[in-house]
């Protein structure tokens, strides 16, 4: 999945993007990929939480100070809502309590 292949829902402009983002991409075919910077890995529903936790640990090891990392789900607009909830649940079970949803902004 490439970011241009995911058609996100739209809404108003967010005030500011976070500095560090781990993106969980859910494609129209329910495929999962996890991306942080240039590092992207395929994941199953069972693996997605562990992948995000590992990326968060890597960010903490390589960043100076106290980096905060946003976890954002980018789901294709064709994805059934239940599939997004399953991904959120898998992340919560891995101890990730703050998860955002990515949308396209109106222009």
Q: Flag low-confidence runs.
A: none
What structural class do the secondary elements suggest?
A: alpha/beta
Strand order of the largest sheet: 4-3-2-5-6
- How big is the Rg? 13 Å
Beta-strand percentage?
25-35%
Q: N-to-C SSE series?
A: EEEEHEHEE
Overall pLDDT, averaged?
Answer: 81
The residue fraction in helices comes out at 25-40%
Number of helices: 2
Distance between the termini: 24 Å
- Global shape: globular
Count of β-strands: 7
Main β sheet profile: 5 strands, mixed
Q: Could you explain how this protein is built, in words?
A:
The strands form 2 sheets. Strands 4-3-2-5-6 form a 5-stranded mixed β-sheet, with helices on one face. It has a two-stranded parallel sheet with strand order 1-7. Helices cover 29% and strands 29% of the residues. It is globular and about 40 Å long. The longest helix has 18 residues, at 45-62. The protein starts with 9 loop residues before the first strand and ends with a strand. With 107 residues, the protein is an alpha/beta fold.
């Amino acid at each position: 999945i490439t970011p241009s292949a995911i058609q996100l829902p739209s809404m108003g402009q967010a005030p500011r993007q976070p500095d560090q983002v781990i993106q969980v991409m859910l494609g129209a075919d329910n495929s999962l990929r996890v991306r942080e910077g240039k590092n992207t890995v395929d994941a199953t529903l069972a693996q997605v939480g562990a992948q995000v936790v590992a990326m968060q640990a890597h960010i903490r090891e390589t960043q100076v100070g106290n980096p905060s990392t946003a976890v954002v789900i980018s789901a294709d607009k064709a994805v059934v809502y239940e599939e997004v909830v399953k991904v959120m649940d898998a992340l919560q079970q891995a101890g990730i309590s703050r998860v955002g949803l990515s949308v396209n902004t109106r222009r």
